[in-house]
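Narrative of accomplishments. A recurring question from our advisory board has been how the design workflow behaves on a single, concrete structure rather than in aggregate. To address it, we present the structure tokens for one chain from the evaluation set, followed by the sequence designed for it. No filtering or post-editing was applied between the two.
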């Protein structure tokens, strides 16, 4: 993955976007030598979001199963247990 200083990225933003969009490159922008953000192809972002959705769905299913198995707790009970 290429790294580009943020100050340089400003000067060549259009070229960098084209490299990502049409060349499939991933570019990390840095500031003072530290990685700050990444520019990635839209397809990569969509893949990440799909993976996150699958993780969220699995967590929701697990929580639902836990509720069915153990039931729920009232807000009053939670507040009471936290104030001890």
């Amino acid at each position: 993955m290429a790294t580009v200083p943020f100050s340089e990225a400003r000067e060549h933003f259009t070229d960098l976007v084209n490299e990502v969009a049409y060349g499939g490159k991933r570019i990390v922008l840095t500031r003072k030598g530290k990685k700050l953000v990444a520019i990635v192809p839209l397809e990569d972002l969509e893949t990440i979001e799909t993976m996150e959705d699958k993780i969220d769905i699995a967590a929701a299913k697990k929580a639902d199963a836990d509720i069915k198995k153990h039931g729920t707790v009232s807000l009053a009970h939670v507040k009471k247990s936290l104030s001890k």
